[in-house]
Amino acid sequence: MVVKKPQIVIIGAGMAGLTAANKLHSVSASKDLFEVCVVEGGNRIGGRINTSEFGGDRIEMGATWIHGIGGSPIHKIAQQIHALESEQHWECMDGNENKATTIAEGGFLVNPSLVDPITKLFNNLMDHAQGKIPTTTTTTTKGHCGKLSVGSFLRQGLDAYCGSSKEEEELKGFGKWSRKLLDEAIFAMHENTQRTYTSAANLFTLDYAAESECQMFPGEEITIAKGYLSIIESLASVLPPGLVQLGRKVTRIEWQPDRHEAMNLENGRTCSRPVMLHFCDGSIMSADHVIVTVSLGVLKASIRDDDSGMLMFNPPLPSFKAEAISRLGFGVVNKLFIQLSEPPHERKDEHEHSKGFPFLQMVFHSPQSELRHKKIPWWMRRTATLCPIYNNSSVLLSWFAGEEALALESLKEEEIIEGISDTISCFLSHSLEFCNGNVNSEKYSHEYKVKFSKVLKSQWGTDPLFLGSYSHVAVGSSGDDLDTMAEPLPKCHISASPPLQILFAGEATHRTHYSTTHGAYFSGLREANRLLQHYSLC
């Protein structure tokens, strides 16, 4: 009698899925111990890693940064495959070295002496929240569910700062801006940047206690010259042809939490494997083990039971797993790339000086303020920066989070160009002159005008394969929920069914490195090793 080899199916060809496949294949291929395959619902590998080109430059539609090079497995792979250098220009190739120009709504250049104290305050507060500096706060200001949020902690710090400063101070040459309004708006600018870091639509929904558990590697943060996709391609390069199957969207996972019975197939045959996968084209596949690496957004949709055609579990996931999925946060962050009609090096002023677009930090009036410029669209008011992707690039980049990010996905190109143009005309007013990317306060007679030729935007929120960007620990959740996300099914001590039927990997299953590509990488290794240990192979 021929003994069947265990069948392992990995759902998703992103960082977690391909890392798991790479590990399983590398260890077991020579011994021919497993049948491994990766099924991917889309038409490409990479998942939330998607390197592209725009305006002749290499850009990232999804994951962008290596968050610290000291000990990062992503950085190690990038070094090994020589992906950190390229002859083609790439996004943020000059890092964060470019000095920002901060301008308040109405075209008022904000001197660093006004910006720096608020920047220092914000950074110190975030260092406290992230556990880098011990805090003795006894705050009672709570977010949702009666727990302290990062947003409430930050606002308490701002209130204490403003309360200790002078009374309402007028600022000469700043129109209707007062010192207090400007301080609050600069602080809000930093909050909006933090929203894109965390994917939280509102920092008042971001749990304070869990923030200090999130870890980053030491060292500088860099982008990958040859693109993040080069890491994915390296992981996939060892896999034999046909192991990764594209266009194979799983709609239902049938598993056996209580007992093991042979499953009936449509052709009248039975299958002894405990898990059955159903695909959108009507085909089915059996498996002994399934590693689910879909996003937390897709998992959230799977527990809503609204028959939307999304991934479903039959029987439904146990309550401990479903409740963790429900409590954790999963937000939308999108990137908007805009190409200048005229390359910066071709723009000249009347003195024949090159006029590059500045690395612009935008300080907006509150969306509710009567002082706001009505032509600036609401979806621009909670973005913080608009800047070239490297010095003198003709491609500009802005980041959006939450409601604004979702709104961006539905806007037409003409609407986006009009909204950006109206915003720029308000910020880069007639009182400012830009030379080589630096601001000169010398007045000149004509308004600084820029024209855009095209835009490119990510659309992670409405993509049915992702339904968002990355996870965060929401108020009401905790790091324990991230651990729960990583628990395989069924629970061995309460079930007589075959173990490790459904395993979970992905950034939202790592307690200390959630929301990152290296967290996804670690999770893929973790689940591959779990199966190898099960079969006593490591």
UniProtKB/TrEMBL annotation:
Keywords associated with the record: Cytoplasm, FAD, Flavoprotein, Oxidoreductase
Localization terms from the record: Cytoplasm
A GO CC annotation given for this chain: cytoplasm
Highest rank taxon of the organism: Eukaryota
Keyword Membrane applies: no
One Pfam short name: Amino_oxidase
UniProt KW Lipid metabolism keyword: no
Xref: InterPro entries: Amino_oxidase (IPR002937), FAD/NAD-bd_sf (IPR036188), Flavin_monoamine_oxidase (IPR050281)
EC number: 1.5.3.16
Similarity field: Belongs to the flavin monoamine oxidase family.
Name of this protein: Putative polyamine oxidase 5
Source species: Glycine soja
Taxon lineage: Eukaryota, Viridiplantae, Streptophyta, Embryophyta, Tracheophyta
